Amino acid sequence: MLNLEPFYQIVQESIRELNVDPDGCRTEKIGQWDLKKGSASIWVDVFLSKQNEDYGYLQVMAPIIKVPDTRREEFYRELLEVNYGLYGVAFNVYNDWVYLKGIRELEDLSKEEATALLNRIGSYADDYDDYFKNKYYAPFSSGGRAPAS
Question: Strand 56-66's sheet: what is its strand order?
């Protein structure tokens, strides 16, 4: 079984680089951290593969918005178009919620890569959560300008 402890340390150091206390954002479950970047929540998980316990992953994701009840085709199309301009992460839908997610194998993971993934998810999520809420949920919204990718 892969020892996850060194990867927990990498994540802890990466969170610290964001000027956040990693101990303060650890959850009750080992290998999980919850933090904020602006208005966005960021969830970090280090876990073993269910198929092979000698293999693991770093997953960083952010809940963005509940899928709107109206203008769904426009909404989904825009998500796909925005995905095209994102680097190393993507929007996905699970249980009627949109998440921004990046996942990477633990093998050869460096602190710099973990920090970059945390920064990327945090920055995109902080921009796009407000953008999509304002465009698809704000009363009388006529849209808005999408954040630069």
Answer: 32-37, 40-48, 56-66, 97-105, 90-94
